Please model this.
Amino acid sequence: MNPTPLRITSLNVNGIRSAMSKGVDVWLREQARPDWLCVQELKALESDMHAGLRALGGLRGAFHHAQKPGYSGVGLYFRHEPDDMRIGFGNAEFDAEGRYVEARYRLADGMRLAIVSVYFPSGSSSEARQQAKFRFLAAFEDHMRALQSQGEVILCGDVNIAHKEIDLKNWKGNLKNSGFLPEERAWMTHVLDDLHWVDVFRALNPLPDQYTWWSNRGQARAKNVGWRIDYQLATPGVAALAQRGSESIYTAARFSDHAPLSISYDLRF
Model:
């Protein structure tokens, strides 16, 4: 059986009802057509999720809602029915915030594959939230180690860290700001260099000015004064199956303050 290119799109929707009103469902159905869609910042409780939101892009979804209304929350939509699903990653503090959904598969060639939608905390609102972000990074590193011991993984989501200077426009002005702190960048370097995860988009595309988030202040988006904080991080085996030239940050329409990030992989179902 030959590999089939299968597409994964990740998008922080900054409110799924808001993104729906801005046409994201039509774009997904008519243009993007992903096989998996990972979304972050649902900002919706289970009771808010009407049938259209549960079937975004014509896909079936699973969700992890925050306990707090109008806050956080992630979803993972799929065209291929998973063999198993996991909601939350076993950390009481952050599972209460609705940050993790995982789908597991056994592929035709025997590969064990987990696809994850995750939303890392932001530390920009206060020092307390920055400390929470550091706690999350420590706990999630342990979870990433456990995941990679079980097979191949594609981890999609808003990581809220720009790794290198190329990953944000105004890097000099953000050296002391959350999202570009030395400790956060060192964590990302450790994950890539020591744990051997792959930043798939950057492996495929070395060009500057590739951003996925822009501030709503001023003309940041119009001037492309942005940050690349949305990722597809993968273990080496499946990262090697990413199709060069398939990587895309879609900016022609605006569904959120983030842009959708899509990559195709040669996978065998």
Q: What stands out?
A: The chain has eight helices and 14 strands. The mean pLDDT is 97.
